[in-house]
């Protein structure tokens, strides 16, 4: 089990580094989008290459951060039923979900997307839009992104089993702070209280 937990830590380290690097792609995507819109409005000049770069960056953010998102337990869940079960039963559901759904689905997508990328790479596939970009880098993101997600799934599986054996904490307890939704809700509540207090002062 120690070797498996070490493997889990190594996988998590890779996904953590990739996830942190991807945050800079968000900034780059915003700058590219803003610059492209500004140039188009001010000078009536547009470029398909810059437009395609925007969705290349969006695809990179979405795909490359998927493993990091699972590591942080931020994927959307519908736990209406599972939330009423014991934590041990929830862990067994996690194990079954990873083995029966996550890993097979991601493995299938990786297998199908590799020839999709290779065909574009070998044939030097170019965008059909005038001045567009080459396509293989965007298609390469698909197998890479799902490989990172497979790795995160394997790591999550190891940690779930380790928790069931009493060898590590529950992998779902990874939040180091409040979610964006919780922070927004608190901000709205604070503003409502401030408005109410100001209203009482006026009266």
TrEMBL record:
Places the protein is found: Cell inner membrane
Pfam assignment, any one: DctQ
Keyword flag Nucleotide-binding: no
GO MF annotation, one: transmembrane transporter activity
Domain Tripartite ATP-independent periplasmic transporters DctQ component intervals: 30-159
Entry keywords, A to Z: Cell inner membrane, Cell membrane, Membrane, Transmembrane, Transmembrane helix, Transport
Ranges that cross the membrane: 53-71, 91-114, 134-158
InterPro entries: DctQ, TRAP_DctQ
One of the record's GO cellular component terms: plasma membrane
Organism superkingdom: Bacteria
Keyword Protease carried by entry: no
Topological category with respect to the lipid bilayer: Multi-pass membrane protein
Protein purpose: Part of the tripartite ATP-independent periplasmic (TRAP) transport system.
Protein family: Belongs to the TRAP transporter small permease family.
Oligomer status and interactors: The complex comprises the extracytoplasmic solute receptor protein and the two transmembrane proteins.
Protein name: TRAP transporter small permease protein
Upper lineage: Bacteria, Pseudomonadati, Pseudomonadota, Betaproteobacteria, Burkholderiales
């Amino acid at each position: 089990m120690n070797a498996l937990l070490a493997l889990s830590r190594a996988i998590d380290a890779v996904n953590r580094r990739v996830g942190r690097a991807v945050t800079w792609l968000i900034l780059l995507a915003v700058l590219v989008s803003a610059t492209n819109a500004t140039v188009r409005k001010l000078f009536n000049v547009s470029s398909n290459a810059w437009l395609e770069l925007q969705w290349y960056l969006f695809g990179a953010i979405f795909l490359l951060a998927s493993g990091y998102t699972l590591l942080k337990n931020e994927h959307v869940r519908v736990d209406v039923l599972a939330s009423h079960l014991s934590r041990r039963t929830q862990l067994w559901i996690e194990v079954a979900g990873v083995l029966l759904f996550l890993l097979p689905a991601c493995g299938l997508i990786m297998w199908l997307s590799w020839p999709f990328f290779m065909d574009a790479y070998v044939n030097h596939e170019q965008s059909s839009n005038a001045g567009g970009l080459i396509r293989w880098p965007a298609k390469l993101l698909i197998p890479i992104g799902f490989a990172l997600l497979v790795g995160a799934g394997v790591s999550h599986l190891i940690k779930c089993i380790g928790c069931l054996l009493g060898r590590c904490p529950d992998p779902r307890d990874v939040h180091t702070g409040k979610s964006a939704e919780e922070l927004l809700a608190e901000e709205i509540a604070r503003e409502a209280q401030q408005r109410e207090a100001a209203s009482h002062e006026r009266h």
